[in-house]
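REQUEST FORM: STRUCTURE PREDICTION
Request ID: SP-0412
Submitted by: Lab K.M.
Chain count: 1
Length (residues): 369
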Amino acid sequence: MNEPFPVSPPRAWAEIDLGALRKNLAVAREAFGGGLMAVVKAGAYGHGLEEIAKALAAQEIAFFGVANVGEARRIRNAGVATRIYLLGATWSEEREEIVAREWTPCVSSIAEAEHFNRIAANHGKRLKVHLAVDTGMGRGGFVAENLPEKLALLDRMENLEIEGIGSHLPSADEDAEFTLRQFERFHAIIRELGGAERFKWMHLSNSAGLLGFDQGLCNLSRPGLMLYGVSPLPGFQEKLATVMTLKSRVTLVRTLPAGHGISYGRQFVTTKPTRVATVGIGYGDGYPRQVSGNGADVWIRGRRLPILGRVTMDQLMVDVTAAEDVTEGDEVEIFGPNIPVAEIAVKADTITWEIFTGITPRVLRCYQE
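STATUS: Completed
RESULT:
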């Protein structure tokens, strides 16, 4: 394998615009004047955890929000010193490292807090933690009943500092009435526990909550999807810049006769001579097979062109009959500024979060300003 061959270009790659990422962060700051926790879990929504964390580290972020200690470790190993917040409940086996490295967990139960307190005492530390409360998500956090008594128990744990309080919005992009009640409930909980002066950080909002609602007592928000160029509320989309453009190349162009099936299952059969381009990307790269037959397009040489038949693991086929100049080697925009990722999500009957996080490791990430 040491013979000198030219380095071949990638079959599929994602161009990540770091300037657009910072622009979207500025939009979040314009919408909310408080602190920001940039949510970078799941590989920064498929954009590349280390590179995104490094790009945002100089932007005065209060926290990076991650799902687990593995993600926290990767950020630290990348040389990024921004505070790290663990967004969900932790396993007991994770807590020793969390305490030792002084990452910030949320606590959802007295038992979890007691364990953190014992570990912190063994390390001679006072660990900053946030109180997680469940105002409607149903995924974690203390339920609202008897919270003053529970906080009193936490206050007696000498090696914990209750630095903040947070909750989560399950339907800020779908149910404004419920979300408003959730804000009211969260604010009532804060007042019940001693008021805004009781906590350094109070946070409830994801991207939809940040963009669409008055934050009230909250002084920290947790933007995720909007940082990556997609607004969960359509009215704000024009303010955001595309961060990821997924691309591939035409590998083959042929003219097929009428009556010729295309792809598995012969879901599509030509009715006339059809010029077909094969493109080197498929569901093995994370492009969803579920768009098959649902009118999905790609962008080649300044034109929208339709996908034919089923998306396969490594390839998909495109009708280029109307684009006689399309040839082998041409770049293909799979989604990006001309084919919105939200459009692909609709045609796949899923959400943009899943599209982004489903882009597989074999897709090269290319970072540019």
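NOTES: The CA atoms of residues 85 and 104 lie 5 Å apart.
Reviewed by: T.R.
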